Amino acid sequence: MTGLIILAAGESGRLGRPKQNLLFQGQTLLQRAVGTALASACVPVMVILGANADQIAPIANADIIYNDDWKGGMASSIRLAVSAITKDATISAIIIMLCDQPFVSAELLNSMITTQLQTGKSIVACTYNGTTGAPVLFTKAWFPELLLLQGQEGAKKIIKNHPEHVATVTFKQGSIDIDTQADYDNLANL
Predict the structure, then answer these.
(1) Is the dihedral of CA 154, 180, 20, 125 positive or negative?
(2) For residue 126, what are the β-bridge partners?
C-alpha cells in the first residue's frame, strides 16, 4: 500500500497569508490537494499542518498531524510524517506531495505508483522544466534516510544523491507552484 503525505506546514512568508487557503477553481489549494490525494490509489492520506494551522480551512477525510516544530523547516514535517505513517506495517511506499502545486492529479499519483511497480525503481519523481521534484514516491527502503533530513532540506537531496534508483514521470505543469502573489495572479490568469 502507498500512503500519501501532503506538506502544508509552512508559513507562506513570501505570500504574506496562508497559501493553503488560496482559492482555485472553487476550492482552497489544500482542499484541492486533499481531494486529489483521496481520488488516487493512495491510503492513508496525511496532511502536515504547522504555521497558521488555526487559520486553515477545515479538511475532511484526511489524517491531520500538527508539526509544532514547523520553524525547523520542511525536513521536520517529512520526519514527522514518515514516523507516523510507518507505524502501519502495510505501507510499502509513500508519496510526498506539496499543497501548492494545483495541477497534481489523481492520474499522476497513480502513474507514479504504476511506474514504481513496472520499473522496480525505489524512487519515482516528477520531471518538469528540466528539474526533478515533487510529488515524489519513496519505497520503504528510503524511510530511514528520510528520517535523517534536517532543516530546509527536502527529499530532493535523496533524489540527487541516488540517481541510479530514480524513475521519472513527466508532469508538464509541475513547475506551477504558488509562493508569491505574482504566482497566484498568474494561476488565476491560466
Answers:
(1) negative
(2) 133, 169
List of residues 6+ apart from 189 with CB closer than 8 A:
none
Q: What is the CA radius of gyration of the chain?
A: 15
Q: Residue 124 pairs with which residues in a beta bridge?
A: 137, 167
CB 63 within 8 A of CB 46: yes
CB atoms within 10 A of CB 17: 13
Q: Mention the CATH class of domain 2-188.
A: alpha beta
Q: Where exactly are the structural domains of the chain?
A: 2-188
pLDDT of 72-117, one tens digit each?
Answer: 888 999 999 999 988 899 999 999 999 999 999 999 999 999 999 9
Q: Is residue 15 predicted with pLDDT exceeding 80?
A: no
The verdict on pTM exceeding 0.70 is yes
Nearest to 7 by CA among 165, 155, 142: 155
